[in-house]
Specification:
Layout lengths: L11 E2 L5 H14 L2 E8 L15 H14 L2 E13 L2 E5 L2 E3 L4 H8 L18 H25 L5 H11 L2 E3 L2 E7 L3 H14 L3 E7 L5 E8 L3 H23 L1 H11 L3 E3 L2 H13 L6 H11 L3 E3 H5 L11 H11 L5 E3 L11 H20 L7 E2 L2 E2 L31 E5 L3 E5 L6 H9 L9 E7 L2 E6 L2 H12 L6 H5 L3 E4 H10 L6 H11 L12 E5 L6 H5 L1
Parallel strand pairs: 1-5, 2-10, 4-12, 10-11
Antiparallel strand pairs: 2-3, 3-4, 3-5, 6-7, 7-9, 8-9, 13-14, 15-20, 16-18, 16-19, 17-18
Helix pairs in contact: 1-8, 2-9, 4-6, 12-13, 17-18
Length: 555
């Protein structure tokens, strides 16, 4: 069997100038493909304890992703529709590097659109005296102008007579059609004009003309010579509105396309990328993970975090980035696959973010082959394959790890294990000690610290203690809350501790501007009785191999 052939990496560079064409191409690519890979690049990332840590639950990780989404802007979002054909194994991908326009930017941009537009006639309240005067004045003017239009359409006036007629009647032109403008100073007057037009004739099309602030300044009436002519005009207006919407909706148009296609979204570090996309292009982020997932599924029904897929392959559970997973598969598994990436705009220039989205597509294709996944649950080699939906909507807190192609993780033991938040204690008040030095120092302060536990720094002011037994952690917290005399040495050192519930509340309150110790101190002083965890426990995925370097915080 032939070895896999790699296609030259290429991606369509999308800007405002070619955005409309790119969106149309994206629509056709979505129809021809089974999946969509997405990768986002932002202007920055959280630092210190504000980034996702091994001690975070799904809920606290969401709150940190929410912080990042609301604090930073997307630089570029790469979208890549693709399909994996089984006979022979072929990956066909169409990567696009798309610029964006957020919800806020769209709103500001729309204020700069001065194109006349249709407006719906609304039920009218009782007219005032001023309304009656306004209606009487414009009604006679519109009727007189329309009579001139119908009369001139039945005669063969020369150009001079036609020009004089326009001058006398106060007429203008809208393309090749006669038109006139009625000045208005409020939305109420707009509705009055629409009412009058509706009473006079159905051969007039009213268009509301906005000023620079977006408020209505006039209603332009366009005369149509027949029902067919009116339909043609309405079609032209609709086409113009669609073009303006596409121009100013920006990446939201892409979101709508992806949503309506119902194709599974494949990404890496989904929690961070999708909170950003939701915040900028869908709606403000909900206050908690549960509501976010509900809202997200209204837009994207199926989302696959590719790191969840590679956990299904034993050694890959220890991979900590896409490139490492790809390198391992390349060395250890023979997955023949032809890769086709059609040249889209005559350039081979690919950004880092577009490289990421191509890596996601390649890794997904290889994992699909190994896990026997197909979009239509087709039979392969006499075995029933599974669908990608079995891997959907499962997000893990993602820890920021430097990208590398190190595939030697297969020789390392799997240090990741599920741990209850009941086993976690947050400790602060120590002074410039490494984790090893702090552990040695704690051993002499209380017998609880002679038990089996791990210690990791979360920032320069706070560390996490992970006890093997939740009973030991609970008993220690109880003694601390009661200020037991057995902890006199502990207290004299200035050390303080709290249970995970205090950390959870710190994240919920959004005390991100403080050092972690300062935030924990503020919350624990208010809810001292809540430091002992009761029934509100959650799992975390503790990785003993992940360490934070104290030097990073002392620089």
């Amino acid at each position: 069997m032939a070895a896999p052939r790699a296609a030259a990496a290429s991606a369509k560079q999308v800007t405002r100038r070619n955005f409309a064409d790119a969106v149309r191409e994206l629509g056709s690519h979505l129809e021809a493909c089974d999946y969509v890979a997405v990768s986002a690049q932002k202007t920055g990332a959280p630092t210190g304890w504000r980034r996702a840590l091994p001690v975070d639950t799904a809920e606290t990780a969401y709150l940190k992703a929410k912080l990042a989404a609301e604090s930073f802007q997307p630089l570029q979002i790469a979208v890549c529709p693709f399909r994996v054909d089984s006979s022979p194994s072929t990956l066909v991908a169409y990567p696009d590097g798309l610029s964006y326009l957020s919800r806020v930017q769209e709103s500001l941009a729309r204020q700069k659109i001065f194109t006349p537009s249709l407006r719906q006639l609304l039920p009218s309240p009782c007219k005032t005296v001023a309304d009656s005067v306004f209606v009487s004045r414009i009604k006679s003017r519109i009727a007189h102008w329309r009579k001139g239009c119908t009369g001139s359409s039945k005669t063969t006036d020369d150009s001079l007579v036609s020009s004089l007629s326009k001058l006398i009647l106060g007429g203008e032109s809208y393309g090749s059609r006669p038109s006139m403008s009625i000045d208005v100073c409020s939305d109420r007057q707009v509705q009055l004009v629409l009412e009058v037009v509706n009473l006079i004739s159905d051969d007039l099309v009213p268009l509301v003309v906005p000023d620079k602030a977006g408020a209505a300044r006039a209603v332009r009436l366009v005369f149509t010579s027949s029902k067919e002519d009116k339909n043609l005009l309405l079609m032209d207006i609709k086409k113009l509105e669609d073009e303006q919407n596409l121009k100013f909706r920006g990446f939201r148009e892409v979101i709508d396309l992806l949503s309506s296609s119902q194709k599974p979204i494949i990404s890496y570090n989904c929690l961070n990328d999708l909170t950003m996309m939701h915040s900028k292009f869908v709606a403000p982020l909900p206050p908690n993970m549960h509501e976010f997932m509900f809202s997200l599924r209204m837009v994207f029904s199926n989302v696959v975090d590719i790191s969840h897929m590679w956990r299904e392959i034993g050694p890959l559970r220890k991979a900590n980035n896409i490139q490492a997973a790809l390198s391992y598969l390349q060395r250890q598994y023979f997955v023949p696959m032809e890769i086709k990436i059609p040249q889209q705009d005559g350039t081979n220039r690919v950004t880092k973010n577009e490289q990421n989205v191509l890596r996601i597509t390649k890794l997904f294709a290889k994992l699909s082959s190994l896990l026997n996944i197909s979009p239509n649950c087709q039979l392969r080699s006499g075995e029933q394959s599974c669908t990608v939906e079995e891997y959907c909507n499962i997000f893990y807190p993602s820890f920021i790890v430097e990208e590398s192609d190190d595939a030697d993780f297969a020789n390392k033991s799997d240090m990741t294990k599920p741990v209850s938040t009941d086993n976690v204690i947050l400790l602060w008040g120590f002074r410039d000690k490494s984790a090893k030095e702090l552990r040695t120092h704690l051993t002499g302060l209380h017998q609880a610290f002679s038990q089996d536990f791990e210690i990791r720094l979360l920032d320069k002011t706070c560390s996490a203690l992970i006890f093997r037994s939740s009973d030991n952690a609970r008993e220690l917290l109880k003694e601390i809350s009661l200020e037991s005399s057995s902890l006199n040495s502990f207290f004299s050192e200035g050390l303080k501790a709290a249970g995970f519930e205090v950390y959870r509340k710190v994240c919920r309150l959004g005390l991100w501007d403080s050092d972690l110790a300062e935030a924990l101190e503020e919350v624990s002083s208010e809810i001292a009785a809540s430091t002992i965890p009761e029934h509100n426990t959650s799992p975390i995925y503790w990785d003993s191999s992940l360490k934070l370097d104290l030097k990073e915080y002392l620089e």
